[in-house]
Amino acid sequence: MSFIVDPRVETYAEEHTTPDGELFDRLAAETREKTTAPQMMVGRLEGRFLGVLVSSLRAQRVLELGTFTGYSSISMALALPLGGRVVSCDVNEETTAIARRYAEEAGVADRIEYRLGPGLETIAQLDGTFDLVFIDADKPNYINYYEATLPLLADGGLIVVDNTLWSGRVVDEDDQDESTRAIRALNDHVAKDPRVENVLLTVRDGMNLVWRA
After folding, report:
1. pTM score
2. Which architecture characterizes domain 7-212 according to CATH?
3. Domains in the chain: boundaries
């Protein structure tokens, strides 16, 4: 659920968005049942949006930082063209196991390569470029993830950073929580970066879309 948009408006938007299907309903239910922070799941609106980005970019290679239970990676994998691949990274073996199970059921397990381990270490081991990078991992490392993945961005590619409005807390200067400060720093860093252009969207908890200038 969004903490920025009125919940009634969010519900209305979901009701007027093409459903993801019964598999995603079960994935969402299991995520709520078995995880302590189910709000980390992207949900229908953001999942559909990520799928549209993959399709529009005709992305062949996607990098995701933050697998969680797999809603986003499966959404993106379903939108890949023939031969496309998602590399999805996380440190949590239990939630990644849920993601693997649902990817198998969705018929996209062969399109997703799961990497367990610290994100920055994984990025350092990757070869080639990516058409879409989705950053949705630990917030204190957001600038580090951005700087590590920007050199891997293909020409015409897109970086999407999630949770960049952080329930609106980014505008509360009295909020000095570590994650809040890290997200503010990332947004400021991107806005001042001459290498890129961006748009900060008010979709769910905020999505910062970044591309090379």
Report:
1. 0.95
2. 3-Layer(aba) Sandwich (3.40)
3. 7-212
Task: Provide the terminal-to-terminal Cα distance of the chain, rounded to the nearest Å.
Answer: 33
pLDDT single digits (tens) 117-170: 999 999 999 999 999 999 999 999 999 999 999 999 999 999 999 999 999 999
Bridge partners, 135 (sequence order): 65, 161
Q: How far apart are CA 10 and CA 62, in angstroms?
A: 27
Sign of the dihedral through C-alpha 189, 193, 196, 199 = positive
CA–CA distance, 164 with 27 (Å, rounded to integer):
24
Residue 98: what are its φ and ψ, rounded to 5°? -65, -45
- The sheet with strand 130-135 has its strands ordered as 112-116, 85-90, 61-65, 130-135, 153-162, 207-212, 196-201
φ, ψ of residue 70 in degrees (nearest 5): 100, 0
